[in-house]
Write a structure and sequence with these properties.
This protein has 301 residues and is of the alpha+beta class. It has 3 domains: 12-70 and 207-238, Pseudouridine synthase (2-Layer Sandwich), CATH 3.30.2350.10; 73-200, 2-Layer Sandwich (Pseudouridine synthase); 242-298, PUA domain (Archaeosine Trna-guanine Transglycosylase, Chain: A, domain 4, Roll), CATH 2.30.130.10. It contains 8 helices and 19 strands. The chain has helices at 24-35, 65-69, 104-111, 135-140, 180-190, 216-222, 225-229, 249-256; strands spanning 12-18, 40-42, 50-58, 73-81, 83-85, 94-97, 116-120, 129-130, 133-134, 150-164, 167-174, 195-205, 208-209, 214-215, 244-246, 261-262, 273-278, 281-288, 292-298. Strands 1, 2, 3, 4, 7, 10, 11, 12, 13 and 14 form a 10-stranded mixed beta sheet that branches. A 5-stranded mixed beta sheet has the order 15-17-18-19-16. The protein has a two-stranded antiparallel ribbon with strand order 5-6. A hairpin with a 2-residue loop joins strand 12 and strand 13 (208-209).
Length: 301
């Protein structure tokens, strides 16, 4: 992967089905190299031991990353009862054990306590920063990691099945900042035992879904740029929840130069964020002040 190639102007999203064992930063690097893209970023970290939807932004799509990061997410996970681990997943050393194995009835009864707005303590092995350093770096160095609990939102949490007494499979839909490893750890404790995640798969991130994801091996098999472009999802997909407003060519040119566009009628209410388009082309994200559209993000597409 060290071979240098001329950069291409590539704009769009790759909905990657991240494989097991690969970090998010590594995944972004490999996809960026394949497309020879000038810029790249991702729409939400996935741990190396997690698989599934990792939206990767290329070129102008990087300007829409915050909207994907803020989006709703869905996961499937397997909780292993009886073993607590330092990382709250299968990577860390065992820190506690328990012989207690909850019944299905006990699990169903406990789930309602984890739905809605709940307080959650992030894992010590997380990407959160403490005094400028990543928590996982401090934890790996043996330092005491002091994190603060945070409010997170769980929309749905359901038991899917029990492969055996030691394991339970779940599906969860949640908001920004939710740690599924913490959810599994806390659920096990609420059931009178300890536990860790033995499997985690993300199935939805904002508008991006598992069914549309492409594997890294398939991307690599496409080999060169023209076929790869067929795997790109339009930049505007990340902004599907934001209303669109059609502009004239002259108005679009003003926004492209960072200038506001006055609206003589039908201006969106003040404070409204709008997707400005001309034809079918995304021009800018703009915010209405009640009389004019002020550019927030201008796209060079």
């Amino acid at each position: 992967m060290s071979l240098k190639r001329p950069k291409n102007k590539v704009d769009g999203w790759v909905v990657l089905d991240k494989p097991l064992g690969l970090g998010s930063t590594q995944a972004v690097g490999r996809v960026r190299w394949l497309f020879a893209a000038e810029k790249a970023g991702h729409g939400g970290t996935l741990d190396p031991l997690a698989t599934g939807v990792l939206p990767i932004a290329l070129g102008e799509a990087t300007k829409t990353v915050p909207f994907v990061m803020d989006g709703r997410k869905e996961y499937r996970f397997t909780l292993r009862f009886g073993e607590a681990r330092a990382t709250d997943d299968g990577e860390g050393e065992i820190t506690a054990t328990s012989d207690v194995r909850p019944t299905d009835e006990a699990i169903h009864a406990a789930l309602s306590n984890f739905i809605g707005s709940i307080e959650q303590m992030p894992p010590a092995f997380s990407a959160l920063k403490i005094d400028g350093k990543r928590a996982y770096d401090l934890a790996r160095a043996g330092a005491t990691v002091e994190l603060k609990p945070r409010q997170v939102s769980i929309e749905r949490l359901e038991l899917l099945g029990r492969p055996d007494a030691d394991h339970a499979d779940f599906a969860v839909a949640c908001g920004k900042g939710t740690y599924i490893r913490s959810l599994g750890r806390d659920l096990a404790q609420a059931l009178g035992t300890v536990g860790h995640l033995s499997a985690l798969r993300r199935t939805v991130v904002g508008p991006f879904r598992e069914e549309a994801a492409i594997s890294l091996s398939k991307l690599e098999a496409l080999g060169h740029i023209p076929p790869l472009l067929g795997a790109l999802v339009p930049v505007a997909t990340a902004l599907d929840d934001i209303p669109a407003l059609a502009l004239t060519g002259t108005q679009a040119d003003r926004l492209r130069h960072g200038q506001p566009v006055l609206l003589t009628r039908d201006a969106p209410p003040s404070g409204t964020l709008v997707r400005a388009e001309t034809g079918s082309k995304l021009v800018a994200l703009v915010r209405s002040d009640g009389a004019a559209l002020q550019p927030v993000r201008v796209f060079n597409l």
